[in-house]
Amino acid sequence: MSEIRAPSGFGLELDRVTLERARRGEMTAFAAIYERFGGPCYNLALRVLGEPAAAEDIVQEIFLKLMGSLRGFRGDAPFGAWLKRMTANATIDALRAHQRFRDEDPDALFEAMPALAADAEDRADAWSMLMRLPPRARAVVILHEVEGYTHKEMAELFGQSESYSKSILARALKRLNDVVAEPGSKEAMDHA
Question: Where does 125-161 have alpha helices with state H?
């Protein structure tokens, strides 16, 4: 599971028959759910955490939890949205558990950001640039810009205010834009 799979699988619907079979504990139904949603769960976790092994751990954790919590799924939201939320929560929890930055001050997060390499290949590679963001900043960028989370939803996920995620997002996007606009300028990263 170390390669990145195509996104957008959370939008797939889960048929009622498979859902009911899974609620009864049928392993073939769980296998079908994993086949359909395992890739999107992995992709989300990988994009936020940046570590294939950590993403695999998240997927394993989610599907183990799913066995116990599937009976609690009421169907108020599409199954994929519910599972996406579970995955995002588990990913944020993993960030918290392994967070190197105990200081919740957004400025402190960005002071520790390493300068991006100056060669053309790294400048052109958005994935490489995202991986160089601090973990929490990368999570905010990916959850907001890629996964479509609102600042209100991220505030709930991170246990912070909406202004916290707005500040992290603005700084991260500015930092990335500065690097793209001034590809040879290390000062763009140092003074953002």
Answer: 126-131, 135-141, 151-158
